[in-house]
Amino acid sequence: MGGASKSKLNLKLKLWRQKNAKDKGYFMDYDVKGISTEASFLEMLDVVNEELVKKGEEPVEFDHDCREGICGMCSLVINGNPHGPDGATTTCQLHMRRFKDGDSVTVEPFRAGAFPVVRDLVVDRSALDRVIQAGGFVSTATGTAQDANCLPVPKDKADRAFLAAACIGCGACVAACKNASASLFVGAKVAHLALLPQGEAEREKRALAMVHQMDAEGFGGCTNTGACAAACPKEISLEHIAILNREFLKASLLER
Amino acid sequence: MSHHCLTQTKIGKKYLVALTGLGLSLFVLMHMLGNLLILVSPEAYNKYGHALTSNPGIYLAEVGLVAILFVHLALAMKLTRENWKARPVGYAVVSSGEKATSLTTRSMWAQGILIFVFIIHHLITFKFGPHYEVEYGGVMMRDLHRLVIEVFQNPLYVAWYLVALFALAFHLSHGVKSSIQTLGIHHPRYFNKFKMAGILYSVLVGVGFMSQPLYVFLIYKG
Fold it and tell me: Residue B99: inside a domain, yes or no?
């Protein structure tokens, strides 16, 4: 941890400002004073925005929702790192005690052709939703819920599926990848459903459809650098990309 | 659903880059091991070369190798261009720390270009270089040993070879383990062993190859 000696920090912030998707955008410097080390990174930005609103300036737009690390809404690339410097952490769970008094902090939006900037630090991540719509679902019967445990799932499979299902779809893997590849996200989704009996019926179709949609959205390819897994706040491992690779290979070869 | 061509997708192209890469990795290992005969004797070295080039299968092997190299290069370049296009606006600050991407993986394309230039130059120097002859037991054959000794008297040649071989070693250190992962082979029980094996492989091939120009330049006395 970055040994903050005081409980209040002064920071030199460099924030990305961009009016809309067509605007070129620029970095704006902000001197921020008296930030509590107890504050989260997003709360620090709230303080910045309060000051801006008081001065009659436009606040800095950024995405956030649950602020407890489970919704996948917050983003930001902080000093080059998606969700900041720590592993297994979302931006909302990054705290200012991680910084030192006088630090320079550059905040950029997640960068990818498939994630156009909406405004300031907000990017449109609906490309990931369209990948899910292409195949990241299971078809089930409606009506009364069936009895619990009537679909037996071995414990080890359930655990592995759960590890994959931990993906919150934040897109940090795309932001971290030098190729802006969504392979870890798609790998987590494909692996999650391929491990469960509920996902079996559409298994091949899913792998094909999601991979084709991933390409169509303009995400890059995987070159196995491992940056995605390092940046993933839910510690989705590279094994999921290997699972995606073999699910897609099998589905392609067996496609009728 | 309509049928898709596997290689239309980025993953499909990557399978081929991985397969051809593993093929080329095996080739450089065999090449390196054959070259080590220079440490044995001029006769052993020349006879090995003669055995390879006098076999009619050599043409098939050469065409195959060129085809594999071409597929590897062409698809890797296509993927690299697509990957660059996937991030039209880059970051102002490059990641450092645990979320950073290693220089080796970031520069695979540059290593590839350097290795390709080296291969062309290497073929011009040796395969299509001066044709000396020597006779062993009544059989005339090419005296490649003499050419190797001559070429590696030049320190610039030695330095250029070392640079190219470092690039090859780094290329292998990422390429071998990455190819295995691309082909969908990953299990927590042996993932780290594969990673280690890839690095050992690159060190073995790199050091093995480098030993030859260094041996000629520093130790060989004729």
Answer: no
Contact B186 A113 (CB under 8 A): no
Could B106 and A225 be called an inter-chain contact, meaning their C-beta atoms sit closer than 8 Å?
yes
The 10s digit of each residue's pLDDT in B58-77 is: 999 999 999 999 999 999 99
Is the CB of B87 less than 8 angstroms away from the CB of A220? yes
Task: Of A114, A96, A1, give the one whose Cα is nearest residue A40.
Answer: A96
Q: Is residue B94 part of a domain?
A: no
Range of the domain at B36: 6-86+106-219
Cβ separation B83–A180 shorter than 8 A: yes
pLDDT tens for each residue of chain A, 256 residues long: 455 455 899 999 999 999 999 999 999 999 999 999 999 999 999 999 999 999 999 999 999 999 999 999 999 999 999 999 999 999 999 999 999 999 999 999 999 999 999 999 999 999 999 999 999 999 988 889 888 888 899 999 999 999 999 999 999 999 999 999 999 999 999 999 999 999 999 999 999 999 999 999 999 999 999 999 999 999 999 999 999 999 999 999 998 8
Give one DSSP letter per residue of A135-190, joined into a string.
H-------SSPPPTTSS---HHHHHHHHHHHT-----HHHHHSTT-B-HHHHHHHH
| Residue B12 domain-assigned (yes or no) | yes
Please name every residue paired with A14 in a beta bridge, in sequence order, or none if there are none: A29, A106
Number of CB pairs < 8 Å for A and B?
A: 151
Q: Which stretches of chain A are assigned E, i.e. beta strand?
A: 8-17, 26-36, 77-78, 81-82, 104-108, 117-119, 122-123
Report if residue A2 sits inside a domain: no
B98/A181 touch (CB, cutoff 8 Å), yes or no: no
Same domain, A91 and A171: no
- Shared domain for A86 and A157, answered yes or no, is no
Q: Are residues A92 and A175 in the same domain?
A: no
Structurally, chain B folds into a number of domains equal to: 1
Domain span at residue A33 reads 8-118
Domain-embedded: residue A3? no
A231 contacts on B by Cβ (under 8 Å): 99
Total number of domains in chain A: 2
- CATH number of the domain within which A59 lies: 3.10.20.30
Residue A105: closest C-alpha in chain B: B93
User: Any CB–CB contact under 8 A between B53 and chain A?
Assistant: no
Is residue A129 located within the same domain as residue A40?
A: no
Q: Are β-strands A77-78 and A81-82 bridged in parallel, bridged antiparallel, or unpaired?
A: antiparallel
Q: What is the ipTM of this complex?
A: 0.95
